[in-house]
TrEMBL record:
Biased composition (Acidic residues): 1-10
Protein's recorded name: Integral membrane regulator
Keyword Membrane: yes
InterPro entries: Pr6Pr-like (IPR049713)
Key words of the record: Membrane, Transmembrane, Transmembrane helix
Transmembrane segments: 28-46, 58-77, 89-109, 129-151, 163-181, 201-225
Stretch list, region Disordered: 1-21
Source organism superkingdom: Bacteria
Length: 248
């Protein structure tokens, strides 16, 4: 039996479907995150064009972290453009941590001759462009998105430990992959600090502890900074509320 206006109790009027549609669109955040995803995928594509060993290429933490960032940013851009709730801070914070690790380890360890783990070699023009996109542009852009286009306070202390699951799983992945390849194979281990031939498993364990503590410290720093950084004023609907998603 159809419900008439007289049958409807006050305050319970039916809401039109159009009125229930999300309206909090964030076009600036959507555009910026789409550009971050594009930069990450462009860098990966350029490396793929210039690489003769895709298996080796995709074993690098750099490539994996940029792909994860591209997925998170593309997903977040879609939600911002359509006015949907922001992604869970656990997801966005993890992507931020991983790409921050990529940028910091590259600039302070792999490009630093004094570190003892430097990976300096001649690069083709495509490799140089990809290198800047994957190690410099995307980490800086992800940090700017977090600082300027995301509301603070979404990161929780427990997230810091949860985010480390991927870096810790990367360690056995790299070691098992290297063990399955022939000794002396080029790129057998993706990074010098994971090279069993150079350091042995005892040395690798020590390196893992040092890097693991550093990554956890970085994760805790992100949580702390996220709690104390101020709200950006005057950005209106460009701010994405980090705690609005049901994903926790």
């Amino acid at each position: 039996m159809p419900v008439t206006e007289a049958d409807t109790e006050p305050g319970t009027e039916a809401v039109p479907a159009s009125a229930a549609a999300p309206t909090d669109r964030r076009p600036v955040a959507a555009a910026f995150r789409a550009l971050i995803a594009l930069a990450a995928l462009t860098g990966v594509a350029l490396d793929m064009i210039d690489s003769g060993d895709l298996g080796r290429l995709f074993s690098y933490f750099t490539i994996q972290s940029n792909i994860l960032l591209a997925i998170a940013c593309a997903w977040s851009a879609h939600r911002a453009w359509t006015g949907r709730p922001a992604l869970s801070p656990r997801i966005t914070g993890g992507a931020l941590l991983y790409i921050s690790i990529t940028g910091l380890v590259f600039h302070f360890v792999l490009s630093n001759d004094a570190s003892g783990f430097a990976m300096t070699s001649q690069r083709t023009p495509l490799e140089s462009i990809a290198n800047q996109l994957l190690h410099t542009a995307t980490p800086l852009a992800a940090a700017l998105d977090w600082l300027l286009l995301t509301a603070p306070g979404g990161f929780l202390l427990r997230h810091a430990g949860q985010w480390l699951a991927y870096p810790f799983l990367y360690l056995p992945f790299a070691l098992i992959r290297g063990a399955l390849l022939d000794p002396g194979a080029e790129g057998r281990y993706p990074y010098p600090f994971l090279d069993v031939d150079l350091h042995g498993y005892t040395g690798i364990a020590g390196n893992a502890v040092v890097f693991g503590l550093a990554f956890y410290g970085l994760a805790l720093a992100l949580v702390l900074l996220d709690r104390v950084r101020p709200h950006q004023r005057g950005l209106g609907n460009r701010i994405s509320p980090t705690g609005s998603s049901r994903l926790k």
